[in-house]
Design brief:
The complex is a heterodimer of chains A (about 130) and B (about 290). In chain A, strands 2-1-9-8-5 form a five-stranded mixed beta sheet, with no helix packed on it. A five-stranded antiparallel beta sheet of chain A has the order 4-3-6-7-10. The termini of chain A are far apart. Chain A is built from two helices and ten strands, in the order E-E-E-E-E-E-E-E-E-E-H-H. Chain B has a single domain, classed as Pyruvate Kinase, Chain: A, domain 1 (3-Layer(aba) Sandwich). Chain B is about 65% helix and about 15% strand. Chain B is built from six helices and six strands; from the N terminus they run H-H-E-H-E-H-E-H-E-E-E-H. In chain B, strands 3-2-1-4-5 form a five-stranded mixed beta sheet, sandwiched between helices. The radius of gyration of chain B is 28 Å and the shape is elongated. The two termini of chain B are about 30 Å apart. Classes of the chains: A alpha+beta (about 130), B alpha/beta (about 290). At the A-B interface, strand 5 of A face helix 1, strand 6 and helix 6 of B. Strand 5 of chain A pairs parallel with strand 6 of chain B, so a sheet runs across the interface.
Chain lengths: ~130, ~290
């Protein structure tokens, strides 16, 4: 199929979106990427951010707190740890996540501490963009 | 022979029991619908997760992470027994416990070490007599109204923490799989080392950051996902089992009421006949 690709966004508790998208913005662990039809197969980790899918000319935006995504030639599947429509996201929701991330940062050392610090920074950027 | 008053009290008591079991059945039916919805809502994630993991694992050679390849020994086992917090649900808990006990016995007979982590009060009570010295921990979900992914994550991080500390080599979970209201099948599932069926799909993926990092992130999530799925299956099974148990109880109460009512009527008739005989023979004696 040319022009569109299958897009699925699922969290452990429910399936949030499924449909044909022409492009999908994914907040990859190493940087944002946009998946379009016939993208090379990739599995990537996610950092906290916004997943945006262009479906029928409209944008569907979701906030994810982490997880990973699998992109193939035919479609992209985002498996988020937690996800919710961007319109429903509140800064209180993110504050909770930030507090949890900071807590794990305090107890950590070395590489884990760096990761935790990055997560806190990502979450705070996300909160700023909301 | 019980007096009329005794019978009346018994009938009333059985009637009120029937009201309770009927109410419980209806509550279970409503909860079952919700539990089933939760279980089916969680299925897409689990399925896709398995697919991704299968693709990843196919590309991993002999030396993978311990969560996938095991510790190289199978001496110490951790049995995670998941049961309900509440009773009155037929054979729901006993069937899980029976399966776990069989495995624990087999391990002990083979000279291996079995450790038991219980989730839910009922299973713990049933295992306590024989296996209390095998207990290593307990997860209390009695305060949890609706099981969420975070509950599964908590259990998973407990299990993974023990694994990292070298407390066990193999972990199994025990739960009931929901087939229908009348059938729940006890299951045992190995979660560590992960059992992954390599996929037929030969797509070669790029991994970002690296495949080792992704795998190291995914495997612990896989444990949590499996535990979450098991918790949800268990939730639906518990309500299903309770529903059919309470349905049976309601029917039995109905039968008992019928029987007692007949007995009550017969006794009343006998009392009347007796009184009549007394009156008639009294009159004849005059």
């Amino acid at each position: 199929m040319s022009g569109t690709m299958q897009f699925d966004l699922v969290s452990p508790e429910r399936s949030l979106a499924s449909g044909q998208a022409s492009s999908i913005l994914i907040p990859g662990a190493d940087g944002d990427m946009v998946a379009m039809p016939d993208h090379a197969p990739v599995v990537t980790g996610l950092r906290p951010g916004i997943v945006a899918a262009e479906i029928d000319g409209g944008m569907l935006e979701f906030l994810v707190t982490g997880g990973f995504a699998q992109i193939t030639m035919e479609g992209a599947t985002v498996l988020a740890d937690e996800a919710l429509p961007k319109a429903e996201a509140t800064s209180a929701f993110l504050d909770e996540r930030i507090a949890a991330a900071k807590e794990s940062q305090d107890g950590a050392t070395g590489a884990t501490a760096d990761e935790a610090a990055k997560r806190v920074a990502d979450l705070e950027t996300l909160k700023g963009n909301l | 022979m019980p007096s009329l008053k005794d019978l009346k009290t018994r009938i009333d008591s059985v009637k009120s029991t029937r009201k309770i079991t009927q109410a419980m059945q209806m509550v279970a039916a409503a909860k079952l619908r919700r539990a089933e919805e939760a279980a089916s809502a969680a299925r897409p994630y689990a399925e896709r997760f398995d697919a991704v993991l299968a693709g990843l694992a196919a590309g991993i050679g002999e030396d993978g992470p311990k969560l996938l390849k095991g510790t190289g020994s199978d001496q110490t086992w951790l049995l995670v027994v998941m049961t309900s917090e509440r009773g009155l649900c037929g054979g729901f808990n006993s069937s899980i416990v029976r399966l776990a006990k069989a495995q624990a016995k087999k391990l002990v007979d083979d000279g291996k070490t079995a450790k038991i982590l219980t989730v839910g009060k009922k299973g713990r009570e049933q295992l306590r007599r024989e296996y209390s010295d095998h207990f290593v921990g307990h997860v209390d979900l009695s305060e949890v109204k609706r099981v969420g992914y975070t509950n599964a994550q908590d259990i998973a991080s407990d299990v993974l923490g023990r694994f990292d500390a070298g407390e066990f080599d193999v972990a199994m979970i025990y739960f009931n799989k929901f087939e229908s209201v009348i059938s729940q099948v006890p299951q045992e599932l190995q979660i560590i080392p992960a059992k992954i069926e390599a996929s037929e799909d030969a797509t070669v993926f790029d991994y970002e950051p690296g495949d080792d990092e992704i795998l190291a992130e995914l495997l612990p999530r896989g444990v949590a996902t499996q535990i979450f799925a098991a918790l949800l299956e268990n939730g639906a099974s518990e309500q299903g089992a309770r529903m059919s148990a309470m349905d049976n109880a309601t029917r039995n109460a109905g039968e008992m009421i019928d029987k007692l009512t007949i007995q009550f009527n017969r006794t009343r008739q006998a009392v009347i006949t007796n009184e009549l005989i007394e009156i008639i023979s009294g009159a004849e004696a005059l």
